[in-house]
Design brief:
Two copies of one chain form a homodimer.
Chain A: H1 11-22, E1 29-35, E2 46-47, H2 51-60, H3 65-72, H4 85-92, E3 99-102, E4 108-109, E5 116-121, H5 122-127, H6 129-153, E6 157-159, H7 168-181, E7 185-186, H8 189-195, H9 205-209, H10 214-224, E8 230-232, H11 238-254, E9 261-264, H12 269-282, E10 289-292, H13 298-306, E11 313-316, H14 318-321, E12 332-339, E13 347-348, E14 365-372, E15 377-385, E16 394-396, E17 404-406, E18 411-414, E19 417-421, E20 424-425, H15 434-446, H16 450-453, E21 463-466, H17 467-483
Parallel strand pairs in A: 6-7, 6-11, 8-9, 9-10, 10-11, 15-21
Antiparallel strand pairs in A: 1-5, 1-12, 2-4, 3-5, 3-19, 12-13, 14-15, 14-18, 16-17, 16-21, 19-20
Helix pairs in contact in A: 2-6, 3-4, 6-7, 6-13, 7-8, 7-15, 10-11, 11-12
Amino acid sequence: MKLDYELLTDLYQLTMAQGYWECGQRDVAACFHMYFRDYPFKGGFAVACGMAQLAEIVETFAFSDDDLAYLSSLDAPGGGPLFKPAFLEHLRTFRLSVDVDAVPEGTVVFPHEPIVRVTGPIADCQLIETALLNCVNFQTLIATKAARVCLAAQSPVAEFGLRRAQGAAGGVWASRAAVVGGCASTSNVLAGKLFGLPVSGTHAHSWVMSFPDELAAFRAYARAFPNNCVLLVDTYDVEQGIRNAIEVGLEMRARGERLAGIRIDSGDLAWLAKTARRMLDEAGLADCGIVLSNDLDEHTIQSIRDEGAKVDSWGVGTKLACAYDQPTLGGVYKLSATRGPADAAWTDRLKISESAAKLTTPGVLDVRRYFYGDGERLAGDMVFDVNAGARCETIVDPADDLRQKNLSGLRFETLLKPLARKGETVLAPALRDALAARERTQAGLSTLDESQKRMLNPHTYPVGLEYGLFERRRDLVVRLRGIA
Amino acid sequence: MKLDYELLTDLYQLTMAQGYWECGQRDVAACFHMYFRDYPFKGGFAVACGMAQLAEIVETFAFSDDDLAYLSSLDAPGGGPLFKPAFLEHLRTFRLSVDVDAVPEGTVVFPHEPIVRVTGPIADCQLIETALLNCVNFQTLIATKAARVCLAAQSPVAEFGLRRAQGAAGGVWASRAAVVGGCASTSNVLAGKLFGLPVSGTHAHSWVMSFPDELAAFRAYARAFPNNCVLLVDTYDVEQGIRNAIEVGLEMRARGERLAGIRIDSGDLAWLAKTARRMLDEAGLADCGIVLSNDLDEHTIQSIRDEGAKVDSWGVGTKLACAYDQPTLGGVYKLSATRGPADAAWTDRLKISESAAKLTTPGVLDVRRYFYGDGERLAGDMVFDVNAGARCETIVDPADDLRQKNLSGLRFETLLKPLARKGETVLAPALRDALAARERTQAGLSTLDESQKRMLNPHTYPVGLEYGLFERRRDLVVRLRGIA
């Protein structure tokens, strides 16, 4: 199936676009930011991902005759066509003219800071909102989950969750995000082909079941794959399966080949891994690795390692590919400033909510990341208005103004990088490459303190508004409450 | 992006296919069944979905030159090419020759009964396994969630979870599955176009924020959409927003138009809905409906209704589109029988596990659904071997052999219907249509007892193995434990 990103949107984005077009707002420029409010998985960081697909969305965004025929067929609930013919004609030649800035994939990011900024005509900004949120929310979630799993595993992790992933493209981009987050490989062949990811796999229980007995199945597999032989030992009885694998491993050795590993996919994995290691070592197959799989996540992996099992690699499926314990990031995309055609400057915009944590931040924003020393350890992130600059280098927690931190004198870098200008993508190839993003993830995680990478109750990283921006936002709340 | 289903698979399916091809197993016929083991969402039923995409998978399955070039580029971990040139040549002209039987979309289904059956050459059966599981698992999950949400809501539910869905295609098929499960409409325009689903939407907070004040924003929207005017009232302050909406609603009435509704997207929804209803009624706008949204699911909706709020329709996003509280179904696809080229009959195959609940069932299976009376109420489902038939009409719970039920004398129908024969789909257009599937869902749910539709601790529906099949399975376990 082919996915047309121009229609991969909520209907209201198109009706609002018609509304803006009709009521003279079409030339109003807008600035939107995408950010999330809560640490995913109760962890201490997130890994940004989704920017390669976002570039693809921007590049392919155009309405076909087919799209327009479909839109013209829609009726308003109260009768009459939903879209006006003149608006559909406008869409026929419509091209995005947004500027998009985003953190590179693999950047370690935190709540309340912009990950993506979109500026341009307000309708353009909204027409890509849904697809942008869909890809950045989901892929950031999966890259983060993968990073957590890989931190726990310490040895290579293969992602193989496609069969439990949420839909086909969900699976394909999930596999890519898993590699960005740190996975060594994926079982997903299409993702391997599309994104140049390492692919890997062993065999299924059905292979064993289709032969008269397990030993015959193992022998046939070893003959077929002498350079890639990992035997799944739990179809009938794990210990007997290990004995059969050892028999085949010794036969392979006699032929000058090597049994690369055995995989255990059920039962008490920690206990079985230790048993298997002992049996393999006693048989002289110390070079045969142990692969574990079956409903693993960062917590079960940590527990298995804590029990002293020596595991050479891990297969992680369901709980990674759909981020089982928290299947959405909840990132939002909020209007923060507008500028009319005659305006010299941007006007702040704010959505007020009942809680300080859900209040939006006005302005055209970017993030300064401060480092201790020569860049080896993160100190704090400052959200600032690019037009106002940083008046002082004190940051204020947007959800709790008693939490402040002075970052003056520290080295910093600015996080948002150009992804598109006037609707044309300018993202360098190196910023689309999943394996380069994986290196960025590793480098970024190494700048976090161990306390921020803890699985349980990690240390909260300081992210705040630049002091002047904090004050501007406070004043705007007071003013808007008055005019609502 | 275009999704090629032939590579939408785990690598091991392709390596195993090469293994079967090489070691003379290629002419072995196999029978696989897809089923799930646990009720999703701790509920009392599931709604089958995903068969329309499964038909698309079967229809488009062919390896392109591009695919083969990619596969030939892969190396085995131990060195040398992973795939042999002769096998890749075999794939070049490969066409599926499987028979697929499946329950129609919208069928109410239960744990431990086959939803899809695939028979054919063993490699063919495995090459579609991953894509089949991906689509049937996910869509059945979402259709089931939607059915639960709609049972709780009682008034129309619009699905609008695309921005939080897991990937683009995840979002598109999720929207379709949500409609199959009972949703009145979706906000997802691409899903609307692809599958002929009703689409709907209101406007966003950004519409309001882009105008000088809320009243100006509401007036502009009412002018732009006199036949489709639902105003979002919680950008700044909900009660003031309702007052502004009332002012615009009265202006519309004076022009002979109608304010269709207001939408509340934050705060205490039950309290605000009751307040809004009172304010609208007092203003003479009794015909203005109330739409609620914001992190809703079946439980919050039920609680809001229990408090007496009168809600005309609901927008349900995140928690529906990714099935937040249980983001995978966990359905499996298990080999149950093989037949060699010289065999007259099928040989039973079984995967043994440590628990009775995870044991597979051998044979070539189908399901008889028994009804009380003339079909108005379900009595129980029998899993039986189509070649052995039903020796007696007593069913045995596969996970607990003390639970048995005699269904003799009751009317029954058989659930699996042909979807493909020798790789050619035979699925009637009526069985691909999402709106027809939604009717099947409604009809199916009406045959369930209220106790089976309860949200909390529902009654368990009797599904069991035909008595002779139960005995065959038990004997096979004993035998396989011996030869493993």
